[in-house]
Design brief:
Helix content is 85%, strand content 0%. The longest helix has 64 residues, at 165-228. The chain is built from 7 helices and no strands. The Tol-Pal system is composed of five core proteins: the inner membrane proteins TolA, TolQ and TolR, the periplasmic protein TolB and the outer membrane protein Pal. They form a network linking the inner and outer membranes and the peptidoglycan layer. Pfam families: MotA_ExbB.
C-alpha cells in the first residue's frame, strides 16, 4: 500500500478538526480498554472471594470467631465479608441493648447489611457509566469527523474545473477513518458494559441471598436468646 493512502499518511494529511476527532477517539478507546481490564480483574476477584467466604461460612465455623478474625484484618474487608461483619457487628450491639426485642434487633441488623450491600454494589459499578458513555457517543463523534472531512473534500472539489476521483479520494478516505475509529472505540465499550452489568447483577443477587440466609440464622439466635432470658 502506498504511503499516501496509509493510515498514518491520511492522518497527517487530514484537517485539524478531523485530527482532533481521531485523537479524541483514540483516547476514548484507550480509556475504554483500561476500564475493561480493571473491571474484569475486580469482578473476577469479587466472585472468587464470595465463593471462598461462603465455603468458610457454611463449613460450620463459629460465627464469633469468624467475626473476630475478619475484624482483626489490617486490610479492609469487602464483598460478603463486609456484609457479614456489618450485620454481625450491629446484631451484637443491638442484642445487648434490646435483648427482649428480637424484632428491633433484626431491623437494625438488616439495615446495616443493606447499607453494606449498597456500598459494595457501588464499588463494583464504578467506571461502568464511563463505558456506557463511550459506547454511546463514540460513533457520533466519528460520524462528525466523517461529515466534516467529506464536506471539506467536496468544497475543494468544487473549486477546480477538472475534478477527478483521485483528487477527492484521499479526503473521503481520511473522513471514513474517523467513522471506523468511532466504531472501534464503541464496540468494545458496549460489549464490556453489558457483560460487566450482568456480572454485577449476579454478584448482587448472590449477596442478597446470603443476606437473607444470614438474617434467618441471626433471627433464630435472637429468639433463642430471648427465650433463654
Amino acid at each position: 500500500m502506498q504511503a499516501e493512502i496509509s493510515f498514518i499518511g491520511l492522518f497527517l494529511e487530514a484537517s485539524v478538526l478531523v485530527k482532533l476527532v481521531m485523537l479524541t477517539l483514540l483516547c476514548l478507546s484507550i480509556a475504554s480498554w483500561a476500564v475493561i481490564i480493571q473491571r474484569r480483574k475486580l469482578l473476577n476477584s469479587a466472585r472468587a472471594k464470595s465463593v471462598k467466604f461462603e465455603d468458610t461460612f457454611w463449613s460450620g465455623v463459629d460465627l464469633n470467631k469468624l467475626y473476630k478474625e475478619l475484624s482483626a484484618r489490617n486490610e479492609g474487608v469487602s464483598g460478603l465479608e463486609a456484609l457479614f461483619v456489618a450485620g454481625f457487628k450491629e446484631y451484637s450491639r443491638l442484642s445487648q441493648a434490646n435483648s427482649k426485642s428480637p424484632e428491633a434487633v433484626m431491623d437494625g441488623t438488616t439495615r446495616a447489611m443493606r447499607v453494606s450491600l449498597s456500598r459494595e454494589v457501588e464499588r463494583l459499578e464504578t467506571h461502568l457509566p464511563l463505558l456506557a458513555t463511550i459506547g454511546s457517543t463514540s460513533p457520533y463523534i466519528g460520524l462528525f469527523g466523517t461529515v466534516w472531512g467529506i464536506m471539506n473534500s467536496f468544497i475543494a472539489l468544487g473549486a477546480v474545473e477538472n475534478a477527478t476521483l483521485t483528487m477527492v479520494a484521499p479526503g473521503i478516505a481520511e473522513a471514513l477513518i474517523a467513522t471506523a475509529m468511532g466504531l472501534f472505540a464503541a464496540i468494545p465499550a458496549v460489549i464490556g458494559y453489558n457483560r460487566f452489568s450482568t456480572q454485577v447483577e449476579k454478584i448482587e443477587m448472590a449477596h442478597v441471598n446470603f443476606m437473607e440466609e444470614f438474617s434467618n440464622i441471626l433471627q433464630r439466635q435472637a429468639y433463642s436468646e430471648k427465650e433463654a432470658v
